[in-house]
Write a structure and sequence with these properties.
Elements (H helix, E strand, L loop, with lengths): L1 H19 L1 H14 L5 E7 L5 E7 L24 H9 L6 H6 L4 E3 L9 H8 L9 E3 L12 H14 L2 H17 L10 H6 L8
Parallel strand pairs: 3-4
Antiparallel strand pairs: 1-2
Helix pairs in contact: 5-6
């Protein structure tokens, strides 16, 4: 029953977000265009509910000459590829804002397990153990406020499973406000090749153009 209510909440809040944040979106779009050459947005193939695939939207944070289809943490000196605006967007997680559209069209939810890359087979298989592939993926979730990029696959999947078992309006509110605190503190954000743990569970990938 709650999943139907949850979808209605997602629809209403995402529509309001698209309307109210449109001036802020415009500012970010102009900043990205002035900062570096290339498109404003990029698409990334992700795993949705029931392991279906969809294209997630993000603001571009990397230069157009970045090696394609290579996770950021596997690049040699990844900082040379991330734009100045991109560093800010990643640090504040503002690069994820275009996913409000994914939420609006029903491919994602505001709260849920972060969608895995299509080729993160270990993460997808581990989530199967906990039923975490059977709910809509989210813009943020229980794992994101308990470690984010630092978490290895096993722990991240277990936390995603905990969310599935405890899914409720109260749990979603807790994740929502917990995310605000985590973003403000930049908790658990590991970029480039600075953390071994991120190699296991990261969904930051270089951007295909």
């Amino acid at each position: 029953m709650y999943l139907k209510v949850k979808r209605l909440i997602d629809l209403i809040l995402s529509l309001l977000g698209l309307i109210l944040l449109s001036p802020f979106f415009l500012i970010l779009i102009l900043a990205i265009k002035f900062d570096s050459r290339g498109p404003v947005f990029f698409k990334q193939k992700r795993v949705g509910i029931k392991k279906t695939h969809f294209n997630i939207l993000k603001f571009r944070t990397m230069k157009i000459d970045t090696p394609k289809d290579t996770p950021t943490h596997l690049l040699e000196n990844p900082d040379q590829y991330i734009t100045k605006m991109g560093k800010f967007l990643r640090m504040t997680s503002l690069d994820e804002l275009p996913q409000i559209w994914n939420i609006f069209v029903g491919q994602m939810s505001i709260i849920g397990p972060r969608p895995a890359l299509w080729n993160q087979y270990d993460l997808i298989a581990e989530r199967d153990k906990y039923g975490a592939n059977d709910v809509p993926p989210g813009l943020t979730g229980w794992a994101q406020i308990n470690g984010r990029d630092e978490l290895p696959i096993e722990i991240k999947s277990k936390l995603d499973g905990e969310y599935v078992n405890r899914i409720s309006f109260r749990m979603d509110v807790k994740c929502f406000f917990g995310t605000i605190v985590s973003v403000l503190k930049s908790d658990g954000v590991v970029e480039g090749g600075t953390g071994i743990k991120k190699e296991a569970g990261s969904t930051k990938e270089t951007e295909p153009f």
